Amino acid sequence: xxxxxxxxxxxxxxxxxxxxxxxxxxxxxxxxxxxxxxxxxxxxxxxxxxxxxxxxxxxxxxxxxxxxxxxxxxxxxxxxxxxxxxxxxxxxxxxxxxxxxxxxxxxxxxxxxxxxxxxxxxxxxxxxxxxxxxxxxxxxxxxxxxxxxxxxxxxxxxxxxxxxxxxxxxxxxxxxxxxxxxxxxxxxxxxxxxxxxxxxxxxxxxxxxxxxxxxxxxxxxxxxxxxxxxxxxxxxxxxxxxxxxxxxxxxxxxxxxxxxxxxxxxxxxxxxxxxxxxxxxxxxxxxxxxxxxxxxxxxxxxxxxxxxxxxxxxxxxxxxxxxxxxxxxxxxxxxxxxxxxxxxxxxxxxxxxxxxxxxxxxxxxxxxxxxxxxxxxxxxxxxxxxxxxxxxxxxxxx
Amino acid sequence: xxxxxxxxxxxxxxxxxxxxxxxxxxxxxxxxxxxxxxxxxxxxxxxxxxxxxxxxxxxxxxxxxxxxxxxxxxxxxxxxxxxxxxxxxxxxxxxxxxxxxxxxxxxxxxxxxxxxxxxxxxxxxxxxxxxxxxxxxxxxxxxxxxxxxxxxxxxxxxxxxxxxxxxxxxxxxxxxxxxxxxxxxxxxxxxxxxxxxxxxxxxxxxxxxxxxxxxxxxxxxxxxxxxxxxxxxxxxxxxxxxxxxxxxxxxxxxxxxxxxxxxxxxxxxxxxxxxxxxxxxxxxxxxxxxxxxxxxxxxxxxxxxxxxxxxxxxxxxxxxxxxxxxxxx
Lengths: 398, 329
Prior knowledge:
The complex is a heterodimer of chains A (398) and B (329).
Chain A: H1 2-14, H2 21-43, H3 46-56, H4 58-75, H5 77-80, E1 101-104, E2 107-119, E3 126-149, E4 153-162, H6 183-219, H7 221-235, H8 239-248, H9 256-287, H10 290-297, H11 302-338, H12 350-354, H13 360-365, H14 371-394
Chain B: H1 2-28, H2 34-44, H3 51-61, H4 67-79, H5 93-128, H6 133-147, H7 150-165, H8 184-221, H9 224-231, H10 236-242, H11 244-274, H12 279-288, H13 292-320, H14 322-328
Helix pairs in contact in B: 1-13, 5-6, 5-8, 5-11, 6-8, 7-8, 7-11, 8-11, 11-12, 11-13, 12-13, 13-14
């Protein structure tokens, strides 16, 4: 409304004495465009408005693209791997990062330098040297070990690989760890587990938070009182020690899948409380709104009122809040696994990978063991930026 | 006000009672107990315990009783201030915890002070010098500070110090003071070592607090009273410090309620990574070894610290903000 008024007033505001014909034409054209724009906004759905506002936040958009890439890795980690992530070879331990060179003798022909190892005669440790003269040519969409996409389609195409299949076991793009496992491939698989655990526990928290918060806010009375006390109790628990105790209580004999689900539930156990509080607050204020009364008078059932009239008014807000709580879950899982109480090998997560970096002496020799940590930071940063962007975009008063 | 305080104080034992049940259930939950894992360790080294000793140990620690009896016995002794005997260290738990509790609290409190000393001025500067290079730099650092897990920061710093200067920056004391009794020299030595874990522990909170402070202050800076103050000729420093800053800090007080407990429990991870002798690594060890009474005792202490943290913030808020005081009483 405001915008339209401004635009109408603008030609007068300029107060130019003689308006040429061309000027007038331009003005009306501009006027036409802006009114179209205004109309576009006034008929746009809430989701479109959110999207338009979100689009303006460049950092958030870049982060969203990054997260999209992460999710592709989550879906097909094998496509991004060059080796079997579990394959160990003690003779190939602590191989340094092989940098990718794009240009070879003035032509676009990507290659990585070969490494050659020698035993130190005194310490008997392997010392790896990057040998720039020996080039291993690599290409995109190369053939490697066979795997199944989403357990359905069998293929052996990988994102990168050696041109010569004979050399396929000689490239370690992010180096190797203590057991000679390829970090690059492990990182891809760790991304799958860590991201999934973060998202799964947030989804679980959202379901719990919506249901319990909704019940609390909609029904009120003793139910409300009980749920609120429960939330207060859970929120006053010291998080990390309790999480440690909970994960320590998981039997050592459990399979990685079982531990994975258990940890998801443990993380969600407290995650739902914040959301439940917010949902409850929304329900309380919405209950008084005229449109809810109107819906009730029109004979809508209770569930229809809740599902069709109440929840859609704050879904965008909930999505923003839950996006912001994914990184918290990821960091917690990583910390727990790092301390040895979260996921355990053979499961691969960022935290499990970082267990290899516990020893400072090792770390000084092989700093590339810290790369999973950088991945955590990037992922958390991206989630935070997208979450902030969504929150700002979902707020109608910004 | 007094009624409010008494109400809150009365709530503490109730909460602790509920927590004690939860904690006991937790430390009791893993299959097997300390004895089974102890026997397993012994067996792996080739030695073993005879049946009589096992039975005696079981009786001594009450492991032969049903769970609820075990809990009641634990609780009964707890009320007398007895946290039981550590199964692993064969020493009273209270002693083990007391040795390290001071360091836990010191570390958390110093991180807390660090956070406030850094975050408030930084937030004020960022808000009053909006869109300057330093403001952008602060924003970027804030994002990175929030995104970096504690232990990751500790790892990076330790790795950097080791590979650059060849020094290991773990621990809270120099070697000669580690076992020494408390003295002035030991306190000075502690001060020399504590700043790094303090920063590692406090950095995420600092980042968050700076952001909140900046946002709060920005809201205030656009209010009409600022213009009227300026029109009356107040210097910019006076104007900002006297009115909007005081208003902007108020909401921060309520963050103490979750921040202090978070520091207490967050120190666990930092302490484990940086090898600090506080109750964090002790808890971790006791959990892994199923030293259940020690783990239970430490968990209860953490619960207690969390409750105290919330209490402090509630009292501070009630004291500072008359609206809350009136509503509660």
